[in-house]
Amino acid sequence: MAAKPAAPAKTAKPAVPAKTAAPAGRGKAGVPGKAAGSTRPPRMLGRVFNNFWPRLDGSSRPSNGSSYYLIVGATLALTCIGLMTVLSASAAESISQDEDPYGLFLKEGMFAVIGLVAMFLLSRASVTFLKKIAYPAIFLAIALLALVFTPIGKEVGGNRNWIEIGSFSAQPSEAAKLALAVWMAAVLSRKGELVKDWKHALVPVVFPVALAILGLVLGGKDLGTAVIIASIVGAGLYFGGVRLRLFVPAILVAGVGALVFAATSGNRTSRLSGWLGNCDTGNDICYQAKNGIYALASGGWFGVGVGQSRQKWSWIPEAHNDFIFAIIGEEFGLMGTLLIVLLYGVLAFAIFRVIVRHNDTFVRIVCGCIMTWIIGQAFVNIAMVTGLLPVIGVPLPFISYGGSSLLLVLAAIGVVLSFARSYPESDTPAP
Question: Most buried residue among 261, 287, 387, 406 by CB atoms closer than 10 A?
């Protein structure tokens, strides 16, 4: 009897590769914030914060330019709100003076259109182009500031910070802010690690250029603008990598200088005295600040309605300019003012994301200076209107009336957009 054929040997199953351990500090699917093997769930707030931007940018894929669109959206929203509020506030003052109620609004709208065109053009500028124009821009800015002390210079509200040729007027200090940001970035980025030495950190950025600009601005008695320019210089040095211990004596010197400058001016001394509560002097030093608070208080939660402000009828001086935030509070209420603060917060957060995603020191310094300029000025204006700071005459970016301010702020946003259009680690086409 024939033997049965032997059964074929069973083929061994291929070994299943072991799962690769998640990198340290990352949990399942590489989710940040959860250590490998950890059974402790992250807090809900931390999970939402860690996952928000990856989901918005497209998980682990290259960035889709979310910061670009957030900057554009916040900028356009603030500009539109500003134009609407300028129309509401300026029309009342113009009517009371028998002038065209739409005159100031149309002029502001013209500068808004020019500014948006400049923003679009600068958003297409390259880093090489910006570096090339840095030195011509700073020399031009200093020359324009010097023209303030010539016969074409103009004094407004006790500050000589305007130039006027015919019907055209401009504020050179606004151009100096943007020129200083770009020029500082060009100088400090070229110095590299040399900025760790205090001599290279201060020369020539602080001595003589920044001091020359501050001297010209203070010569026109514009303390508010000088404070903003000083903060831009500080931001440029910080993002340029200057050692932090250098800032302590600089802040002390700047603080003492500001107090001395305020003490030597009767107008500023009275404003400081009024802010401290000495309002019963008979010279109405608290008139503007008090009516600004009244406007905010009468707005309630949701405001009295668009165009229905009562305080704008000659009760608040410069209602369409420095104190326009009070009109927003009265007409749109607390919700309206919180929306303005939220839009500035979105703008700051988006610009900061551009800073942290770039390794180029030039880009980081320019964006840091512009962010400090816009957000710092907004903070000072809102604090001034709400009584947290004395009245120092600083406009609210994008919103207050002023063609020079609106045009240059929009141009500065265009520079930031030129960096936000693409990221160094991304191959995604620019928006």
Answer: 406
